[in-house]
From TrEMBL:
Protein name according to UniProt: Phosphate-binding protein
Annotated signal sequence range: 1-20
Membrane topology: Lipid-anchor
Keywords linked to the UniProt accession: Cell membrane, Lipoprotein, Membrane, Palmitate, Phosphate transport, Signal, Transport
Species the sequence originates in: Metaplanococcus flavidus
InterPro entries reported in the protein's UniProt record: PBP_domain (IPR024370), Phos-bd (IPR011862), Phosphate_ABC_transporter (IPR050811)
Keyword Cell membrane: yes
Predominant localisation class: membrane
Family: Belongs to the PstS family.
Length: 316
């Protein structure tokens, strides 16, 4: 897409993205220049919410979609994966972005509410562990090191506890909030459901985490790969068991256990009854791979997007 290599600043996205379409679109049913099959003009509104990790992808797509369909207003909140599912269950949104698969209890709540949904894959992410560029001693950590650092055990965590050659300085922790799918994922694969260190600063806003880590050489945190890419001049990514997150290691799964898929969940009734919601979701699937690459994530194999389009088509 012609404008997708937009600048990713350290403040990638605020608490709510509201972009009303303000461009122009081709008439007469012609294919758009970006390759989307969105052709005729559509009017209406679409509402989504959810993951801050997925937000950079969705921000770019909404911006481009605004030029393709000026009659559609798309509003996307960023209240975290869990917060997004809460609104989805309440029937407040047409789609819900997630950085983890839906939980059994969330699926059960949707069933009880009479809301059918379709899971759509968008991209791959490598949950990135980062420190400040001013930190000149941490280069690599093992999964065991991460657990020792991040699990609450009643002690004051010092860098020298991990490596006696490192400074005897207290570790400062930054982590996504408990409503975040990133928190859930880290909890599952690193903490193994034990309590996170009590001194950690938790926030649903990844930019708050970025800013805190940037300014403190003793800080450590984690979030989606795109937020590291957007701030790599002031942050340093830590390799995990010698593996650095990048396009190849994330897609192959070599960056284990911190590689993961990113999703959006579409409400079936919105896709069948709301032309604007269907059109926006079609546009999203068709362009998610290119946007994912543009903002710092990893595109899926093309067949996965074709599967997503087929699933969407079945809801029409």
């Amino acid at each position: 897409m012609k404008n997708w290599k937009f600048k990713m600043a350290s403040t990638i996205l605020g608490s709510t993205l509201l972009l009303a379409a303000c461009g122009s679109t081709d008439e007469g049913g012609e294919t758009e220049e970006n390759g989307s099959s969105t052709a005729s003009e559509v009017e209406g509104s679409v509402i989504g919410d959810g993951s801050s990790t997925v937000a950079p992808i969705m921000e770019g797509i909404v911006e481009e979609y605004a030029g393709a369909q000026p009659g559609v207003q798309v509003t996307v909140g960023v209240s975290g994966t869990g917060g997004g599912f809460e609104k989805f269950i309440e029937g407040e949104t047409d789609f819900s972005n997630a950085s983890r698969p839906i939980k059994e209890e969330e699926a059960a709540a949707l069933e009880e509410a009479g809301i059918d949904y379709t899971e759509i894959l968008l991209a791959y992410d490598g949950l990135s562990v980062v420190v400040s560029q001013e930190n000149d001693f941490v280069e690599d950590l093992t999964v065991e090191d991460l657990k020792k650092l991040w699990v609450e055990d009643g002690t004051t965590k010092m860098w020298s506890d991990i490596n006696p050659e490192w400074p005897e300085e207290e570790v400062v922790f930054y982590a996504p909030g408990t409503a975040s799918g990133t928190y859930d994922y880290f909890n599952e694969v690193i903490l193994e459901d034990e309590d996170i260190v009590s001194s950690a600063t938790l926030s649903e806003d990844d930019n708050t985490l970025v800013q805190g880590i940037q300014s403190d050489p003793n800080a450590i945190g984690f979030f989606g790969y795109a937020y590291f890419v957007a701030n790599k001049d002031t942050l340093k990514v830590v390799t995990i068991d010698g593996i650095e997150p990048n396009d190849e290691t994330i897609e192959s799964g070599e960056y284990s256990p911190l590689s993961r898929p990113l999703f959006t969940y579409a409400k079936n009734s919105s896709m069948s009854d709301n032309e604007a919601a269907y059109d926006f979701m079609q546009y999203t699937i068709e362009n998610a791979g290119e946007m994912a690459q543009a903002v710092g994530y990893v595109a899926l194999p093309e067949e996965e997007y074709e599967n997503g389009l087929a699933d969407l088509e079945a809801l029409k």
